[in-house]
TrEMBL record:
Protein name as it appears in the record: Neutral ceramidase
Catalytic class of the enzyme: hydrolase
Enzyme Commission identifier(s): 3.5.1.23
Ligand binding (Zn(2+)): H102, H211, E448, Y487
Domain Neutral/alkaline non-lysosomal ceramidase N-terminal intervals: 10-516
GO MF terms held by the record: metal ion binding; N-acylsphingosine amidohydrolase activity
Cofactor binding, per record: Binds 1 zinc ion per subunit.
Amino acid sequence: PTPPITAANYLLGVGRADCTGPVAEIPLMGYANLKQVGGGLLTRLYSRAFIMADLEDSRRVVFVSADIGMVSQRLRLEVLKQLQSKYGDLYRQHNVILSGTHTHSGPGGYFQYTLFWITSKGLIKPSLNAIVKGIVKSIDLAHQNMKKGRIFINRGMVEHSQINRSPFSYLENPASERSRYSSDTDKEMVILKMVDEKGQELGLISWFAVHPVSMNNSNHLVNSDNVGYASYLFEQEKNKGMLPGEGPFVAAFASSNLGDVSPNTKGPVCVNTGESCNNPQSTCPVGGATMCMAMGPGQDMFESTRIIGQNMYLKAKELYEKASQEVRGPLSSAHQWVNMSDVSVELNATHTVKTCKPALGHSFAAGTIDGVGAFNFTQGSVEGDPFWDGIRDQLLGEPSNETKTCHEPKPILFSTGEMTWPHPWHPDIVDVQLATIGSLVILAVPGEFTTMSGRRLRDAVQREFEAHGSPGMDVVIAGLCNVYTHYITTFEEYQAQRYEAASTIYGPHTLSAYLQLYRGLAKAVAMDTIQDLPRGPEPPLFNITSITLVPSLSVDRAPAQKTFGDVLQEVREQYQEGEVAEVTFVGANPRTSAENTTEHNFLTVERYSNTSSSWHVVHNDASWDTRFYWTKGSSGHSNVTIEWHIPRGTEPAVYRIQYFGHYRRKISIFHTISVPFEGTSSPFQVTAL
């Protein structure tokens, strides 16, 4: 039911743009697994932008949720630079929130701090540029589409979609605090519904705390994981008859305080014996920690992704349809840059503590039950290991006594705050940011807050607003914003030193520092003294040319007597719904296509229409029913295999699959060109079951 036509409260604009980047040979960002490089595409990645302004258009707030692992400082600074050259002072660091969904299946390589170069093989310009371009384009589209409208808010519980992956750390929190909550994860989803003044639907933002790691670290296909599938279902529902990625309605499923929250609801199991490994160290009797993996609800990771994504979609749809509480009131935004390695925190009148220079503990290398580490590190280690410490001292230098003491009880593996070659390994300067839209407060946090850390942050901000005359604010946390600083656990969880605690890089008082900082922002907004907030020290922008271990693009070659796009393995003549149609072509490196066009579509599934005697596209490469695999051979040869997982209810008809690529060809010693080509399967019949 569309709400009756009443006065608009805001100017609203929404936009969506492709930010996929190269889908081959680039390490995927998230699991820190060097073997996990891109080898194709399951679904495209998008940046989704929402601009909210008051009716006088004196103040604006921009919220962007992008299908990427996290927003890096480099990415944010480049986006802000482009926005400033286009729009002057309209979109600045205080009113632009950039949030990553935290998919672990997107290309990496868009970081300027050295630690992240190790797992993503350096700074990869095509990867960085694709994301910058996509984010800016989504904001451009939203900017061009501003219209009068209304915002509604709703909230509800999502069941069967998360578990706490460090329950033993959670239990370190005081019993009196835990007794206030019914679960060790935040099950609440908060949604915003946007409509124009005629009641025409514009978009949805959902915030819900879950790791998008339904696709595990054996996956090589670029995709947006469970939250991306939820967006896809919502947008397909609202943009009827459109291909994925097309149509005016934009639905973002954004990240929140997901630090210790996994979607792998079957919990941790020893993959070799099948027994549970839900113990404080997440280890197995045989094979240790490397055998302990959490599994999702499905038969495989693809099905698990769909189940969790669908759970989120169905709840969001219900909340969206029933949303009746209207958001009204002024907009504002506040931002500071803070040197997080040196914050003094007043715990009470007599007690002051400090944050530390960044450092990662031993359990960081253990990984989690969603993606285990490569060596025999275990979670919950409060002792160092002489072997690894010795290697570290030789290669990277020993941590200073000051840093060791500051981080206790964390045994330091990498003292990143003391490592500066060739550039600093971790950020010191971090963004803290908050925006309000009427009674809604969005806290843009620079990392992964655990469940309890997020609860404490929301409480502190809500109380601060109340103390200064603004009771009853709705506070949501937007995760992985602006700069990546790993995890933020509570002081109590920090003592257990599991993965999340070992990755709380500014030491045991990190959360207390953020509570103090975000309270300061809240007070400034509530009392209208934002102009008195110190800006803080500006973050550095390192002058880095592309440094990368990713192989350079070579010339593509086709086998003798064949050409690019020729079919090597043909489809069958007939399939039933539920089966998989598969075809293999003489391929070329997909990176060549990415360098030519940002939004290159690699494949179509087309249906033949007898009435018009022509082919109609029914799926593109953004469809969750298609998979595009690229297999690299030797000396420039490669194959592309395209699968169409024919969904139940597919119209019985004649279909074909097309492949679109570019091959790189030498025309002189110094000069190569990219040549577009296509390949087409034989037609095949799809029949009903």
